[in-house]
Amino acid sequence: MNRGCLSRPRPTRLTSARLRGVIVTIDGVAASGKSSVASGVARALGIPYVSSGLLYRAVTLLALERGLTPPTAPALLELLAEHPPELRPLPQGNRVSVGPGPDGEQRDLTDAAHTGAVDAGVSAVARLPEIRQWVNDRLRALPPPFVAEGRDMGTAVFPQAAAKFFLTASARVRAQRRVLERQDDVDKIEAALRARDEHDAAQSRPAQGAQVIDTGTLDLNGVIQAVLSGIEGRR
Fold first, then answer.
1. How many domains does the chain have?
2. CA–CA gap between residue 164 and residue 100 (Å, rounded)
3. Which of 106, 124, 144 is the last residue of a domain?
């Protein structure tokens, strides 16, 4: 899925009135393009999108900075009570920050949360039931309408969602996409993705009634259009 081939999505027939209170979930395997697709769908609909994975990444980053390896639920919950990350679903994309620091300002964690070290550690954090509950509680507190992307948005977090989607692609295709974003070896990335798929198998599965989209042969705009068509068909 070529992220550089995004044209303006075609107009949708969904109106603000029809979208009131609507939640759309986009789940999928790692590096399947969930954030890019959710952002494009949300822009086409004129509603926010919510990145659950960014919260997990922020927690992982804070754990690494504190030296919590391996992470345990009690230690992480204590850390989060002291320094709870705040997710901000902004129109231009999700940001996550923590603070205030010594200077009284929030510290933006977004860029630092997208590194190889966080990639390697986030599955261990996300598998902890207590941390999943901490993240889910914050997601459920957000007012709809919105598009939520993650691993189990349609299964565990928002089973009542009006429209559910699951994105997939081969590990090789996903590795080739990610290497365009990060200077790393494609074989190394593919091996890491396969390992993460195994670790996340319990959480990362299609929700009941979800439309499964193989993104391997589609560009970004094609996936967005497929999701928009699916939403229109279910409303």
1. 2
2. 36
3. 144
